[in-house]
């Protein structure tokens, strides 16, 4: 199991929510299930085209993503631009990136599957994913 997947699984398990059993997440990951929520198992991760969902306005998504990134404790606010790369421009490590993606999940009330989360490495990547997610609020 890749390190980022393990980190996301542990971070999610430590983020207690009455609706989720954190121990189930760890048991599933330990059994090779790839993680509980966000893994896509048992849930259809459909695009807006497939569900007839309503897209969020791309500019509003950008503004909200920028706000989340600027408010992330390890980011210097002045360095954040609409083109910022999390590692190259903002000097975040892989675990910081995992935490930032989780903050985006909270902001938009979505669960990002691990495979998709590993591809979100910049502000444009995050905007693209959220703007095309039918479940984003």
TrEMBL record:
Pfam families in the record: PP-binding
Keywords tagged on the record: Electron transport, Fatty acid biosynthesis, Fatty acid metabolism, Lipid biosynthesis, Lipid metabolism, Mitochondrion, Phosphopantetheine, Phosphoprotein, Transit peptide, Transport
Domain Carrier: from-to ranges: 59-134
Subcellular location(s) per record: Mitochondrion
Organism domain of life: Eukaryota
Signal peptide: none
Example GO molecular function: acyl carrier activity
Record's keyword annotation contains Iron: no
Protein function: Carrier of the growing fatty acid chain in fatty acid biosynthesis.
Family: Belongs to the acyl carrier protein (ACP) family.
Protein name: Acyl carrier protein
């Amino acid at each position: 199991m890749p390190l980022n997947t393990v980190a996301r699984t542990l971070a999610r398990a430590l983020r207690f929510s009455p609706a989720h059993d954190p121990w189930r997440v760890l048991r599933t990951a330990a059994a090779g299930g790839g993680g509980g929520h966000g893994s896509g198992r048992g849930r259809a991760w459909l695009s807006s085209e497939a569900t007839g969902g309503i897209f969020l306005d791309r500019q509003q998504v950008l503004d909200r993503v920028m706000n989340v990134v600027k408010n992330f404790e390890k980011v210097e606010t002045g360095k954040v631009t609409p083109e910022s790369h999390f590692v190259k421009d903002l000097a975040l490590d892989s675990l910081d990136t995992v935490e930032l993606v989780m903050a985006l999940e909270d902001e938009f009330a979505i669960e990002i599957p691990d495979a998709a989360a590993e591809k979100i490495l910049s502000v444009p990547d995050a905007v693209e994913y959220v703007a095309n997610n039918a479940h984003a609020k």
